[in-house]
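Recap for those who missed Tuesday's class. We walked through two folding examples back to back. For each one, the amino acid string is listed first and its predicted C-alpha coordinates come directly after. Nothing is annotated here on purpose, so try labeling regions yourself before you check the end of the notes.
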Amino acid sequence: MVIHAHGNGGNISYDIERMRRLQRIGLAVFAYDYRGYGKSEGSPSEDGVIIDAVAAYDHLRDTLSIPPAKIILWGTSLGGAVSVQVAAQRSAAGLILESTFSSARDVAERVYPFLPVRWLMRTSFRSIDTLRSLSIPTLHIHGGRDEIVDVELGRRLYEAAPGPKEWYEIAGAGHNDTFLVGDAEYLRRVADFSGRYARH
Protein backbone atom coordinates (compact mmCIF):
# COMPACT_ATOMS: atom_id res chain seq x y z
CA MET A 1 0.00 0.00 0.00
CA VAL A 2 1.35 3.40 -1.04
CA ILE A 3 0.30 6.66 0.63
CA HIS A 4 1.02 9.30 -1.99
CA ALA A 5 1.57 12.96 -1.10
CA HIS A 6 1.45 15.29 -4.13
CA GLY A 7 3.49 18.37 -4.94
CA ASN A 8 2.78 22.03 -4.37
CA GLY A 9 1.56 22.92 -7.85
CA GLY A 10 -1.43 20.60 -8.09
CA ASN A 11 -3.79 18.17 -6.41
CA ILE A 12 -4.56 14.47 -6.59
CA SER A 13 -6.09 14.82 -10.06
CA TYR A 14 -2.64 15.72 -11.42
CA ASP A 15 -1.32 12.27 -10.48
CA ILE A 16 -4.06 10.08 -11.95
CA GLU A 17 -1.87 8.67 -14.72
CA ARG A 18 0.98 7.90 -12.33
CA MET A 19 -1.46 6.10 -10.02
CA ARG A 20 -2.93 4.10 -12.91
CA ARG A 21 0.53 2.87 -13.82
CA LEU A 22 1.30 1.93 -10.22
CA GLN A 23 -1.92 -0.03 -10.01
CA ARG A 24 -0.89 -1.96 -13.11
CA ILE A 25 2.14 -3.32 -11.25
CA GLY A 26 -0.02 -4.35 -8.31
CA LEU A 27 0.39 -1.38 -5.97
CA ALA A 28 -2.65 -0.04 -4.13
CA VAL A 29 -2.45 3.76 -3.86
CA PHE A 30 -4.09 5.99 -1.27
CA ALA A 31 -3.97 9.64 -2.36
CA TYR A 32 -5.32 12.72 -0.60
CA ASP A 33 -5.30 16.50 -0.87
CA TYR A 34 -3.84 18.75 1.81
CA ARG A 35 -6.01 21.45 3.31
CA GLY A 36 -6.53 24.23 0.76
CA TYR A 37 -5.73 21.96 -2.21
CA GLY A 38 -8.22 20.43 -4.62
CA LYS A 39 -11.58 20.17 -2.89
CA SER A 40 -10.16 20.20 0.63
CA GLU A 41 -11.21 23.12 2.78
CA GLY A 42 -8.94 25.41 4.76
CA SER A 43 -5.63 27.13 4.07
CA PRO A 44 -2.31 25.33 3.75
CA SER A 45 0.58 25.80 6.15
CA GLU A 46 3.69 23.78 6.92
CA ASP A 47 2.22 22.38 10.14
CA GLY A 48 -1.21 21.93 8.54
CA VAL A 49 -0.13 19.78 5.60
CA ILE A 50 1.91 17.56 7.94
CA ILE A 51 -1.13 17.12 10.19
CA ASP A 52 -3.16 16.16 7.09
CA ALA A 53 -0.55 13.62 6.01
CA VAL A 54 -0.41 12.02 9.45
CA ALA A 55 -4.23 11.86 9.45
CA ALA A 56 -4.13 10.02 6.10
CA TYR A 57 -1.68 7.51 7.55
CA ASP A 58 -3.75 7.05 10.69
CA HIS A 59 -6.88 6.46 8.58
CA LEU A 60 -5.17 3.61 6.74
CA ARG A 61 -3.74 2.09 9.89
CA ASP A 62 -6.65 2.56 12.29
CA THR A 63 -9.77 2.61 10.10
CA LEU A 64 -8.72 0.40 7.19
CA SER A 65 -6.48 -1.82 9.37
CA ILE A 66 -3.43 -1.60 7.10
CA PRO A 67 -0.38 -2.55 9.21
CA PRO A 68 2.68 -0.25 9.10
CA ALA A 69 4.78 -3.10 7.67
CA LYS A 70 2.69 -2.86 4.48
CA ILE A 71 2.78 0.94 4.11
CA ILE A 72 5.14 2.78 1.77
CA LEU A 73 5.21 6.55 2.19
CA TRP A 74 5.69 8.28 -1.18
CA GLY A 75 6.03 12.00 -1.75
CA THR A 76 6.56 13.97 -4.93
CA SER A 77 8.31 17.36 -4.65
CA LEU A 78 6.69 19.10 -1.65
CA GLY A 79 5.00 15.79 -0.89
CA GLY A 80 8.41 14.27 -0.30
CA ALA A 81 9.13 16.83 2.40
CA VAL A 82 5.74 16.07 3.95
CA SER A 83 6.34 12.31 3.80
CA VAL A 84 9.69 12.67 5.55
CA GLN A 85 7.88 14.32 8.46
CA VAL A 86 5.31 11.51 8.55
CA ALA A 87 8.14 8.95 8.64
CA ALA A 88 9.54 10.76 11.68
CA GLN A 89 6.21 10.33 13.50
CA ARG A 90 4.89 7.00 12.25
CA SER A 91 6.34 3.61 11.37
CA ALA A 92 6.40 2.52 7.71
CA ALA A 93 8.06 -0.10 5.54
CA GLY A 94 9.76 2.38 3.23
CA LEU A 95 9.94 5.92 1.93
CA ILE A 96 10.02 7.03 -1.72
CA LEU A 97 11.17 10.60 -2.32
CA GLU A 98 10.60 11.81 -5.86
CA SER A 99 11.83 15.19 -7.13
CA THR A 100 12.27 16.17 -3.49
CA PHE A 101 14.50 18.87 -2.03
CA SER A 102 16.88 19.12 0.92
CA SER A 103 14.96 22.14 2.25
CA ALA A 104 12.45 24.64 0.90
CA ARG A 105 14.96 27.42 1.40
CA ASP A 106 17.58 25.62 -0.70
CA VAL A 107 15.08 25.50 -3.57
CA ALA A 108 14.19 29.17 -3.19
CA GLU A 109 17.83 30.20 -3.21
CA ARG A 110 18.35 28.34 -6.50
CA VAL A 111 15.29 29.91 -8.08
CA TYR A 112 15.73 33.41 -6.61
CA PRO A 113 19.48 33.73 -5.95
CA PHE A 114 19.31 37.53 -5.88
CA LEU A 115 16.84 37.67 -2.93
CA PRO A 116 17.63 37.06 0.78
CA VAL A 117 15.12 34.22 0.87
CA ARG A 118 16.47 32.67 4.06
CA TRP A 119 15.19 35.74 5.85
CA LEU A 120 11.95 36.06 3.88
CA MET A 121 10.60 32.50 3.81
CA ARG A 122 8.14 31.36 6.45
CA THR A 123 8.29 27.72 5.32
CA SER A 124 11.46 25.73 5.88
CA PHE A 125 10.71 21.99 5.41
CA ARG A 126 14.20 20.99 6.53
CA SER A 127 13.85 17.46 5.19
CA ILE A 128 17.59 16.88 5.24
CA ASP A 129 17.80 17.36 9.01
CA THR A 130 14.85 15.07 9.73
CA LEU A 131 15.98 12.36 7.33
CA ARG A 132 19.39 12.09 9.02
CA SER A 133 17.65 10.79 12.16
CA LEU A 134 15.65 8.06 10.38
CA SER A 135 16.61 4.46 9.58
CA ILE A 136 13.76 3.79 7.14
CA PRO A 137 14.72 2.38 3.70
CA THR A 138 14.52 5.10 1.04
CA LEU A 139 14.27 5.23 -2.74
CA HIS A 140 15.24 8.61 -4.21
CA ILE A 141 13.94 9.35 -7.72
CA HIS A 142 14.96 12.50 -9.57
CA GLY A 143 14.90 13.82 -13.11
CA GLY A 144 18.30 14.69 -14.48
CA ARG A 145 16.88 17.86 -16.05
CA ASP A 146 14.58 18.93 -13.20
CA GLU A 147 13.86 22.60 -13.81
CA ILE A 148 12.28 23.30 -10.41
CA VAL A 149 14.20 21.21 -7.86
CA ASP A 150 17.79 20.92 -9.05
CA VAL A 151 18.99 17.32 -9.10
CA GLU A 152 21.83 18.33 -6.79
CA LEU A 153 19.30 19.08 -4.03
CA GLY A 154 17.83 15.61 -4.43
CA ARG A 155 21.30 14.10 -4.35
CA ARG A 156 22.07 16.04 -1.17
CA LEU A 157 19.00 14.53 0.46
CA TYR A 158 20.00 11.05 -0.68
CA GLU A 159 23.48 11.41 0.76
CA ALA A 160 22.04 12.45 4.13
CA ALA A 161 19.85 9.34 4.42
CA PRO A 162 21.51 6.86 6.84
CA GLY A 163 19.36 3.78 6.25
CA PRO A 164 19.25 1.38 3.29
CA LYS A 165 18.91 3.67 0.27
CA GLU A 166 18.82 3.76 -3.51
CA TRP A 167 19.40 6.59 -5.99
CA TYR A 168 17.57 6.55 -9.33
CA GLU A 169 18.29 9.49 -11.63
CA ILE A 170 16.26 9.58 -14.83
CA ALA A 171 18.23 11.10 -17.69
CA GLY A 172 16.24 13.65 -19.67
CA ALA A 173 13.37 13.86 -17.17
CA GLY A 174 12.16 17.15 -15.72
CA HIS A 175 10.23 17.84 -12.55
CA ASN A 176 6.83 16.46 -13.52
CA ASP A 177 7.49 13.78 -16.15
CA THR A 178 9.73 11.29 -14.33
CA PHE A 179 7.23 8.44 -14.60
CA LEU A 180 6.70 9.15 -18.32
CA VAL A 181 10.38 9.38 -19.23
CA GLY A 182 11.39 6.54 -16.93
CA ASP A 183 8.47 4.40 -18.15
CA ALA A 184 9.10 0.66 -17.64
CA GLU A 185 12.35 1.13 -15.73
CA TYR A 186 10.62 3.57 -13.37
CA LEU A 187 7.93 1.01 -12.60
CA ARG A 188 10.49 -1.77 -12.23
CA ARG A 189 12.48 0.24 -9.67
CA VAL A 190 9.36 1.07 -7.67
CA ALA A 191 8.08 -2.52 -7.77
CA ASP A 192 11.47 -3.86 -6.72
CA PHE A 193 11.74 -1.44 -3.80
CA SER A 194 8.21 -1.99 -2.52
CA GLY A 195 8.49 -5.74 -2.96
CA ARG A 196 11.72 -5.83 -0.98
CA TYR A 197 10.55 -3.80 2.00
CA ALA A 198 6.74 -3.90 2.24
CA ARG A 199 5.27 -7.07 3.70
CA HIS A 200 2.53 -8.44 1.44
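Example two. Treat it independently of the first, because the proteins are unrelated.
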Amino acid sequence: MKFFYTPILLLTLLSCKKDDQVETPTAYRITKNITYNNISVDVIIDKPAINNLDVLIVFHGTVRSDSEIITAANTTLDSFKSILNIKPMMIVSVAHPQENILFGDNIIQAEAALLWVKNKANQELGITVGKIFLAGHSQGGYLVTRLNTMHQTNGVIANSPGPLNLVYRCGLEENGQVQSSATCLKLKNVYGLTTANSSAYFERSLLNFTNGFKSDILFIQGLDDSPIQLHSWPSFKQEVLNCTTCQNSQFVEIPGGHTALFTNASAKTKFNNFINSR
Protein backbone atom coordinates (compact mmCIF):
# COMPACT_ATOMS: atom_id res chain seq x y z
CA MET A 1 0.00 0.00 0.00
CA LYS A 2 1.36 3.41 -0.93
CA PHE A 3 0.83 6.60 1.07
CA PHE A 4 0.37 9.97 -0.55
CA TYR A 5 0.79 13.26 1.32
CA THR A 6 -0.86 16.47 0.33
CA PRO A 7 1.48 19.51 0.31
CA ILE A 8 -0.23 20.93 3.42
CA LEU A 9 0.04 17.64 5.36
CA LEU A 10 3.69 17.20 4.35
CA LEU A 11 4.51 20.74 5.50
CA THR A 12 2.76 20.08 8.81
CA LEU A 13 4.75 16.90 9.42
CA LEU A 14 8.05 18.59 8.62
CA SER A 15 7.20 21.49 10.93
CA CYS A 16 6.40 19.11 13.77
CA LYS A 17 9.71 17.31 13.30
CA LYS A 18 11.59 20.60 13.33
CA ASP A 19 9.81 21.75 16.47
CA ASP A 20 10.57 18.46 18.21
CA GLN A 21 14.26 18.89 17.43
CA VAL A 22 14.32 22.44 18.78
CA GLU A 23 12.56 21.49 22.01
CA THR A 24 14.77 18.50 22.86
CA PRO A 25 16.43 19.35 26.20
CA THR A 26 20.21 19.51 26.14
CA ALA A 27 22.87 19.45 28.83
CA TYR A 28 25.60 22.06 28.86
CA ARG A 29 28.04 24.07 30.94
CA ILE A 30 28.57 27.70 30.01
CA THR A 31 29.99 30.90 31.43
CA LYS A 32 27.50 33.73 31.08
CA ASN A 33 27.50 37.39 32.06
CA ILE A 34 24.11 38.15 33.55
CA THR A 35 22.56 41.49 34.50
CA TYR A 36 19.80 42.38 36.90
CA ASN A 37 18.89 45.94 37.91
CA ASN A 38 22.02 47.19 36.11
CA ILE A 39 24.28 44.95 38.23
CA SER A 40 26.35 42.49 36.18
CA VAL A 41 28.21 39.40 37.29
CA ASP A 42 29.63 36.29 35.62
CA VAL A 43 28.05 32.94 36.42
CA ILE A 44 28.87 29.35 35.49
CA ILE A 45 25.71 27.47 34.49
CA ASP A 46 25.69 23.67 34.63
CA LYS A 47 22.40 22.45 33.15
CA PRO A 48 21.24 18.82 32.91
CA ALA A 49 19.28 17.53 29.92
CA ILE A 50 15.89 18.66 31.24
CA ASN A 51 14.12 21.98 30.90
CA ASN A 52 11.86 21.85 33.97
CA LEU A 53 14.24 21.88 36.90
CA ASP A 54 15.13 23.09 40.34
CA VAL A 55 18.18 25.34 40.73
CA LEU A 56 21.04 25.38 43.22
CA ILE A 57 22.89 28.71 43.26
CA VAL A 58 26.36 28.36 44.81
CA PHE A 59 28.96 30.87 46.01
CA HIS A 60 32.72 30.38 46.35
CA GLY A 61 35.04 31.35 49.18
CA THR A 62 37.75 34.00 49.40
CA VAL A 63 40.37 34.33 46.65
CA ARG A 64 43.38 36.61 46.36
CA SER A 65 42.42 38.40 43.15
CA ASP A 66 39.51 38.66 40.74
CA SER A 67 41.61 36.83 38.13
CA GLU A 68 40.88 33.70 40.19
CA ILE A 69 37.12 33.98 40.60
CA ILE A 70 36.12 32.04 37.47
CA THR A 71 38.35 29.17 38.57
CA ALA A 72 36.92 29.39 42.10
CA ALA A 73 33.37 29.39 40.73
CA ASN A 74 34.05 26.29 38.65
CA THR A 75 35.72 24.50 41.57
CA THR A 76 32.83 25.35 43.87
CA LEU A 77 30.32 24.14 41.29
CA ASP A 78 32.19 20.84 40.98
CA SER A 79 32.39 20.47 44.76
CA PHE A 80 28.66 20.90 45.31
CA LYS A 81 27.76 18.82 42.25
CA SER A 82 29.91 15.96 43.54
CA ILE A 83 27.86 15.63 46.75
CA LEU A 84 24.43 16.23 45.19
CA ASN A 85 22.84 12.79 44.88
CA ILE A 86 19.14 13.59 44.50
CA LYS A 87 17.35 14.38 41.25
CA PRO A 88 19.30 16.44 38.67
CA MET A 89 19.40 20.16 39.37
CA MET A 90 20.77 23.08 37.42
CA ILE A 91 23.70 24.60 39.29
CA VAL A 92 24.54 28.27 38.89
CA SER A 93 27.91 29.20 40.38
CA VAL A 94 28.42 32.92 40.96
CA ALA A 95 31.85 34.46 40.29
CA HIS A 96 31.38 37.29 42.76
CA PRO A 97 34.15 39.92 42.86
CA GLN A 98 36.43 40.55 45.85
CA GLU A 99 39.60 42.37 44.89
CA ASN A 100 38.70 46.04 44.58
CA ILE A 101 35.86 46.28 47.09
CA LEU A 102 35.43 46.25 50.84
CA PHE A 103 34.45 42.94 52.35
CA GLY A 104 30.69 42.39 52.06
CA ASP A 105 30.09 44.85 49.23
CA ASN A 106 29.80 41.96 46.76
CA ILE A 107 26.39 41.24 48.25
CA ILE A 108 24.99 43.33 45.39
CA GLN A 109 26.37 40.89 42.79
CA ALA A 110 25.18 37.95 44.86
CA GLU A 111 21.70 39.45 45.03
CA ALA A 112 21.69 40.20 41.30
CA ALA A 113 22.47 36.55 40.53
CA LEU A 114 19.64 35.33 42.75
CA LEU A 115 17.11 37.75 41.28
CA TRP A 116 18.22 36.90 37.74
CA VAL A 117 17.53 33.21 38.38
CA LYS A 118 14.17 34.09 39.93
CA ASN A 119 13.00 36.50 37.26
CA LYS A 120 14.99 36.20 34.03
CA ALA A 121 16.54 32.73 33.71
CA ASN A 122 13.32 31.23 32.34
CA GLN A 123 13.26 33.53 29.35
CA GLU A 124 17.00 33.84 28.71
CA LEU A 125 17.71 30.10 28.96
CA GLY A 126 14.43 28.73 27.66
CA ILE A 127 13.76 26.72 30.83
CA THR A 128 11.20 26.50 33.60
CA VAL A 129 12.71 27.12 37.03
CA GLY A 130 11.09 25.28 39.91
CA LYS A 131 12.52 25.49 43.41
CA ILE A 132 15.58 27.64 44.16
CA PHE A 133 18.18 26.81 46.79
CA LEU A 134 21.29 28.74 47.88
CA ALA A 135 24.54 27.15 49.05
CA GLY A 136 27.88 28.70 49.92
CA HIS A 137 31.27 27.78 51.31
CA SER A 138 33.29 30.08 53.63
CA GLN A 139 32.77 33.64 52.30
CA GLY A 140 30.12 32.07 50.07
CA GLY A 141 28.40 30.88 53.25
CA TYR A 142 28.54 34.46 54.52
CA LEU A 143 26.83 35.67 51.34
CA VAL A 144 24.01 33.11 51.34
CA THR A 145 23.31 33.83 55.02
CA ARG A 146 23.00 37.53 54.25
CA LEU A 147 20.85 36.82 51.21
CA ASN A 148 18.53 34.86 53.51
CA THR A 149 17.80 38.08 55.37
CA MET A 150 16.83 39.74 52.08
CA HIS A 151 14.94 37.28 49.86
CA GLN A 152 12.93 34.10 50.29
CA THR A 153 14.05 30.89 48.59
CA ASN A 154 13.27 27.21 49.15
CA GLY A 155 16.24 26.76 51.45
CA VAL A 156 19.83 27.82 52.22
CA ILE A 157 22.97 25.84 53.12
CA ALA A 158 26.04 27.58 54.58
CA ASN A 159 29.26 25.62 55.10
CA SER A 160 31.82 27.17 57.49
CA PRO A 161 30.36 30.67 56.91
CA GLY A 162 32.50 33.65 57.73
CA PRO A 163 34.20 35.82 58.70
CA LEU A 164 31.96 35.68 61.74
CA ASN A 165 33.56 38.56 63.65
CA LEU A 166 35.76 41.02 61.79
CA VAL A 167 36.44 42.99 64.98
CA TYR A 168 38.13 39.96 66.51
CA ARG A 169 39.84 38.77 63.33
CA CYS A 170 41.19 42.14 62.21
CA GLY A 171 42.16 42.98 65.78
CA LEU A 172 44.42 39.92 65.86
CA GLU A 173 46.05 41.11 62.63
CA GLU A 174 46.60 44.60 64.00
CA ASN A 175 48.32 43.11 67.05
CA GLY A 176 50.56 40.92 64.91
CA GLN A 177 49.08 37.72 66.33
CA VAL A 178 48.10 36.38 62.90
CA GLN A 179 49.23 37.14 59.36
CA SER A 180 47.68 40.22 57.77
CA SER A 181 45.03 39.80 55.07
CA ALA A 182 43.78 41.94 52.22
CA THR A 183 40.32 41.88 53.80
CA CYS A 184 41.41 43.64 56.99
CA LEU A 185 43.95 45.93 55.32
CA LYS A 186 41.27 47.40 53.06
CA LEU A 187 38.91 47.89 56.00
CA LYS A 188 41.71 49.54 57.98
CA ASN A 189 42.42 51.98 55.14
CA VAL A 190 38.80 53.13 55.23
CA TYR A 191 37.77 52.79 58.89
CA GLY A 192 41.03 52.92 60.83
CA LEU A 193 41.86 50.48 63.62
CA THR A 194 39.25 48.19 65.13
CA THR A 195 39.87 49.84 68.51
CA ALA A 196 38.85 53.19 67.07
CA ASN A 197 35.89 52.12 64.93
CA SER A 198 34.74 48.68 65.99
CA SER A 199 31.14 49.29 64.93
CA ALA A 200 32.11 49.63 61.26
CA TYR A 201 33.87 46.27 61.38
CA PHE A 202 31.01 44.61 63.25
CA GLU A 203 28.43 45.87 60.76
CA ARG A 204 30.14 43.77 58.06
CA SER A 205 30.55 40.70 60.28
CA LEU A 206 28.22 37.72 59.95
CA LEU A 207 27.39 38.13 63.64
CA ASN A 208 25.46 41.21 62.53
CA PHE A 209 23.20 39.10 60.28
CA THR A 210 21.55 36.61 62.64
CA ASN A 211 17.96 37.83 62.43
CA GLY A 212 15.14 37.89 59.92
CA PHE A 213 15.97 34.70 58.01
CA LYS A 214 13.27 34.37 55.36
CA SER A 215 13.85 30.67 54.59
CA ASP A 216 15.00 27.55 56.40
CA ILE A 217 18.78 27.40 56.65
CA LEU A 218 21.28 24.63 57.35
CA PHE A 219 24.64 25.58 58.88
CA ILE A 220 27.50 23.07 58.67
CA GLN A 221 30.67 23.59 60.69
CA GLY A 222 33.76 21.43 61.01
CA LEU A 223 35.00 21.33 64.59
CA ASP A 224 38.63 21.18 63.44
CA ASP A 225 38.39 24.50 61.61
CA SER A 226 40.74 27.42 62.31
CA PRO A 227 40.87 28.92 65.83
CA ILE A 228 39.63 32.26 64.45
CA GLN A 229 36.49 30.62 63.06
CA LEU A 230 35.82 28.48 66.12
CA HIS A 231 36.37 31.36 68.55
CA SER A 232 33.20 33.12 67.36
CA TRP A 233 31.20 30.07 66.29
CA PRO A 234 29.41 29.43 69.64
CA SER A 235 28.32 33.09 69.82
CA PHE A 236 27.07 33.03 66.25
CA LYS A 237 25.18 29.79 66.76
CA GLN A 238 23.52 31.08 69.93
CA GLU A 239 22.50 34.36 68.29
CA VAL A 240 20.83 32.45 65.46
CA LEU A 241 19.07 30.07 67.86
CA ASN A 242 17.81 33.07 69.85
CA CYS A 243 16.26 34.62 66.74
CA THR A 244 12.49 35.12 66.99
CA THR A 245 12.09 36.46 63.45
CA CYS A 246 13.74 33.56 61.61
CA GLN A 247 12.51 30.51 59.79
CA ASN A 248 13.91 27.18 60.96
CA SER A 249 17.69 27.04 61.49
CA GLN A 250 19.58 23.75 61.71
CA PHE A 251 23.17 23.22 62.84
CA VAL A 252 25.41 20.29 61.93
CA GLU A 253 28.72 20.22 63.81
CA ILE A 254 31.08 17.48 62.66
CA PRO A 255 34.72 16.38 62.73
CA GLY A 256 36.69 18.02 59.96
CA GLY A 257 38.17 21.28 58.85
CA HIS A 258 36.95 24.23 56.82
CA THR A 259 35.70 22.02 53.95
CA ALA A 260 33.97 19.46 56.18
CA LEU A 261 30.76 19.42 54.12
CA PHE A 262 32.60 17.97 51.13
CA THR A 263 34.51 15.28 53.05
CA ASN A 264 32.18 14.12 55.83
CA ALA A 265 29.60 11.46 54.88
CA SER A 266 27.13 12.57 57.56
CA ALA A 267 27.29 16.18 56.37
CA LYS A 268 26.69 15.12 52.77
CA THR A 269 23.59 13.18 53.87
CA LYS A 270 22.27 16.15 55.85
CA PHE A 271 22.85 18.39 52.83
CA ASN A 272 20.86 16.16 50.50
CA ASN A 273 18.10 15.49 53.03
CA PHE A 274 17.69 19.22 53.58
CA ILE A 275 17.15 19.88 49.87
CA ASN A 276 15.05 16.78 49.26
CA SER A 277 12.62 17.57 52.10
CA ARG A 278 11.64 20.98 50.70
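Answers for example two:
Residues 7-23 form the longest helix (17 residues).
The longest strand covers residues 128-137.
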